Inverse folding.
């Protein structure tokens, strides 16, 4: 949860800057307003899917959202692939197998099958995987090339 406190702060800052209430942002992101409140209080994990919706809405980088960059956006946004598809692509580019990632303790073996079936990972897990590949979050998910 090391980056989620900063995520909660940045989300609140962006909402204030844009004059958004929890209810207004919830409508724009198609989530429950209670969920927005929990994210702002760092009481719920956020999935990559929802973090991307926030980053896309505010036109900022994931790196900015989690406090790893001071620049809101310093690259041209690219459409991103589904998580599992992008993960497999990055693994191939780095010649890394799933066995190696599991053995290195980055994620558990059961994650691959649930991600393959469309379940979205939590943002904190994506941060760990991006760090493993020495990529920014936005590079890892394919928003930045």
């Amino acid at each position: 949860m090391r980056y989620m406190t900063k995520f909660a702060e940045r989300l609140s800052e962006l909402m204030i800057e844009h004059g958004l209430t929890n209810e207004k942002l919830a409508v724009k992101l198609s989530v429950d307003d209670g969920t927005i409140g929990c994210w702002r209080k760092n009481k719920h994990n956020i999935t990559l899917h929802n973090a991307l919706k926030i980053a896309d809405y505010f036109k900022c980088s994931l790196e900015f959202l989690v406090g790893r960059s001071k620049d809101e956006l310093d690259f041209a946004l690219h459409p991103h692939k589904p998580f599992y598809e992008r993960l497999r692509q990055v693994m191939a580019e780095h010649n890394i197998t799933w066995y190696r990632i599991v053995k290195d303790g980055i994620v558990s073996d059961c994650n691959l099958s649930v991600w393959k079936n469309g379940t979205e990972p939590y943002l904190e897990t994506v941060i760990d995987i991006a760090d493993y590949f020495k990529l920014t979050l936005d590079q890892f998910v394919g928003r930045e090339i």
Q: What stands out?
A: The mean pLDDT is 92. The chain has two domains: 4-65, 83-141. Residues 4-17 form the longest helix (14 residues).
